[in-house]
Amino acid sequence: MDKVFKALADETRRRLLDRLREDNGQTLGELCAGIGMARQSVTQHLAVLEAANLVATVRRGREKLHYLNPVPLHEIQERWIDRFESPRLRVLGAVKRRAEEAMTDKPTFVYVTYIESTPEKVWDALTDADLTAAYWGHSNVSDWRTGSRWAHVRTDGSGVADVVGTVVESERPSRLVTTWVAPDEEGQEDKYSRVTFDIQRHAEIVRLTVTHEDLPDESARADVSSGWPAVLSNLKSLLETGHVLPQEPWLMPTR
């Protein structure tokens, strides 16, 4: 939390966060425009924001895109603001967020977590059918080759898949990209969303960035915004402690 407050204390860094809030997923060159500062200086400010987990980066080809990561700000809100917040302000905030999201076609949801593990173990946790069954309640089934089909299969023995898709990129252990769609909409390209897992090692920890884009509407965004943190918290617990959380986190009431 000290790193978050340090990062927010600087006017330039707050301006960079505002720029990402208005138009998420910008390159370094785009962020430099209008700042009136050398690229090296902007890079240093972005490094402070990344260290505070306020900014996450995703590689797209040769470009490095920067995204506002709302998790630390949400933690501040929960600790110091929510107890004083009125329902009216919550409604106004929701309206504002929807208006901002409607202005961009960039990835709708980006989530970053840090895990004491190795990239190989994180990759296996995302792709091994038995491991995903342990922390996700579904088995992710595929050979994970580029172009292959994958399925998110229930663990109740029914064999029913709630999500299916195609493996778009598969670079073990650093990057996995898959499409997602309901089985009854398979083949309808306009119905697909896309999930990217970027896995980066730093000494003895791993930074896992999940980008879920092309979501159809605000309802879907709300679902993944609550679903991904719960699933990834369970994954983190499994890799760091050897067991999942004692209760399924996605069943916990939001309030």
TrEMBL record:
InterPro entries: ArsR-like_HTH, ASHA1/2-like_C, HTH_ArsR_DNA-bd_dom, START-like_dom_sf, WH-like_DNA-bd_sf, WH_DNA-bd_sf. GO terms for molecular function: DNA-binding transcription factor activity. It holds the Pfam family HTH_20. Residues 1-88 form the HTH arsR-type domain. Gene3D superfamilies: 3.30.530.20, Winged helix-like DNA-binding domain superfamily/Winged helix DNA-binding domain. Signal peptide: none annotated. It comes from the Bacteria. SMART domains: HTH_ARSR. CDD domains: HTH_ARSR, SRPBCC_CalC_Aha1-like_GntR-HTH. Belongs to the AHA1 family. PANTHER family: TRANSCRIPTIONAL REGULATORY PROTEIN. NCBIfam families: HTH_metalloreg. This is Metalloregulator ArsR/SmtB family transcription factor. It comes from Streptomyces muensis.
